[in-house]
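Entry 12.
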Amino acid sequence: MKKEYDFSKGERGKFYQRGAKLNLSVYLEKDVRQFVEEIAGKKKRDVSTVVNALLKSDMRLAETME
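Predicted 3D structure (tokens):
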């Protein structure tokens, strides 16, 4: 890394997009990942779909507990 960088020609906010949404990476523990991958394999779905379905199920459960 350089000690100093020249930002004199930089443009503030050049890449800013109002309302932009970020996709966050989620790191699963090894046993959780294996569990989800097994379900995904059996149902012939991708891991993201299975994780989202499990989380939505938990969301519905949490709403009933309020």
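Annotation: The mean pLDDT is 94. The first helix runs from residue 30 to 43.
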